[in-house]
Specification:
Chain A is α/β, with parallel strands linked by helices. Chain A has helices at residues 5-21, 51-61, 76-83, 100-104, 124-127, 152-157, 166-176, 192-195, 198-201, 219-233, 249-252, 266-273, 309-322, 324-332, 342-347, 354-366, 376-392, 396-418; strands at 38-44, 66-72, 92-95, 131-132, 135-136, 139-150, 182-185, 256-262, 278-280, 293-302, 338-339, 367-368.
Amino acid sequence: MTIDRRTVLASGAALGLLTACGSNTGRDGDGSDGKGPKLSQWYHQYGEAGTEQAVKRYAEAYDKADVSVQWRPGNYDEQTAAALLTKSGPDVFEVNGPTLDQIQGGQVLDLTDLLDGVKDDFNQAVLAPKTYDGRNWAIPQVVDMQLLYYRKSLLADAGRTPPTSLDELVDTAKELTTKKVKGLFLGNDGGAGALGGTPLYAAGLSLVTDEGEVGFDDPAAARALAQLRALYEDRSLLLGAPSDWSDPSAFTQGLTAMQWSGLWALPAVEKALGDDFGVAAFPAAAPGAEPAVPVGAYGSAVSARSAHKQEAKDFVRWLWVEKTGYQRDFALSYGFHIPARLSLAKKADVLTEGPAADAVRFSTGHGYAEPLLWTPASRVAYQDALSRIIKSGANPESELRSVVRKVSAELDRVKKKSS
Amino acid sequence: MRRRERLWRRLAGPQNRNLWFWVFVGPFALGLVVFTYVPLGWSVYLSFFDAHNTVSPTDFVGFDNYTSMLRNDAFTDSLWTFVVFTAFIVPTTFVLSLSLALMVNRMRRAQAFLRSVFFLPAACSYVVAALIWKMSIFNGVRFGLANTVLGWFGAEQTAWLSTTDPPWYWLVIVTVRLWLQAGFYMILFLAGLQRISPTLYEAAAVDGARPGWQVLRHITLPQLRTTSVAVTLLLVINAFQAFDEFYNLLSDARGYPPYARPPLVYLYYTALGQGQNLGLGSAGAVLLALIIAVVAIGQARWFGLGRKED
């Protein structure tokens, strides 16, 4: 047979086409090593060293399925939201939710039976947003919270004490601002994203009431948000830092005297500053109101499109309900989180002293979790308004009126869907 | 049997030309249909449904998604962002790339070197360039390059991407795009300049035209007309597609600020972000496509694109 140029090119094209048509999701069929079906488990990329190896070790130890862990950098929540539309998404995945639309859309499985007998041992504040219609849609893995870090020495030099009211926070930030160091870092957007609903809770309000109505249709909300504008106008806020609020670098590098960040940052702050720091809740924003700290939890959920639903649920039960040793290791050995199980949190020595103990006290005394009815559309509308109030000096009353209208419409939509 | 052979021969064409045409073009045509036309059609279909977190919806809502998108302040603001961006970036890139081309074209030495130097940024990814601009040059702390330089003159540090009054973020967005694309358009203008016959300049000189502005206005620019039309059209299309540098400069883990949010970024968050409102996002995409089509047709008519004398 003569092989000419055309034959070679045509064969190449045909081969290319065949290759392009192939697909390998890496999980269909039975496992080749006799461990049962293949399951794909997704995690978002944790910053703490060792976490990835740890979750792979847990997966390897499971003997009833061949679990492959995918460690996914980038916009994880958006990746999973899109992947749930397809069959090539994960079987088991951690989720900062699930959202109400994901639950109502039947994208995640009901995991209520996994919590039989142990439901009361889970932190109820973070379990509540994963509960809809009396059923649980994800198993909380660890509790995370945000709080205010402050540099003790800088406050002492300025003759200030940790702020206990929003007015004091504004004054202290202004006092601590110098040419080289800013008073407060709430994120490069001035706090719109990181703070979210925290100033409203610190003003004695809420995002959504227990009755499912807008929780901040109140003049106190506008007053609290106007105070955030004061911080911006005073030039007390650090803006444009190389890393954002979730990373403590700006605080540890001395760019700011106070920073809003997460509990996960505590080991890094301790390593950099020793005992020259303290933590506080977001101070009360109205007379008679309490301070506030947001708490939340990534939960483990099962995709409704999984080819091995029961096996995936069994794995979630094994890892996040039965294997308490792994849960403790995951929460405390790498980053710094509060175990989602109350019994484990009580036994964690590292949470009983110093700033960590303060943080736990804030989370139990002043913690709030974003309600399930606070949908992404409501969050975007509120954050946009908050950004305009802080940075552009928009009128808080009129901005909030517009947000209340949008959130009411959104609440009507999701309630209509559930009825 | 013979009839079948005849049919096959007719389909295959003389010397199997039709057959070879489809062997080479077919896979790409198939890709175009599967990855472009089917999603486009599906998107139009989704735009008439309530499609939260689903691509196979059942709740038909007619034009509701379109009306709510048009009443949505965030969407109309994003269209204004695009208009402001286009109004600025198209003429500045045009003037800068033409100036560079004129300069490089006149150089006797190091022409090839400078051409490469100016073109090189075009090979850089928008994402990488945006991150360099954001983290090294225009970060808001004292050790950012721009703030360090300004600090030598006693200026206060500026939060370039977080300051809305004045809107310094536009400076960052525009400079990164200028750096990335001016070299590419310079090459197009250079090709156009090298196509102009030297006899035209000689004739102009004989007629007493002064070198410089007079020659540029009456000889060079008219001769560059077709290149200029193509460059303008490409610039406007590129401005419509603005996403990468906006997203990487201004977004963070919690979202995107309400300012400088072009339509593609807004639609990304609506349809593909956590919002997952694919019906509303599709309606926005259809509206945007219609706007782009109207602008492109209007621009083509304005420039007389495709007229016989071109």
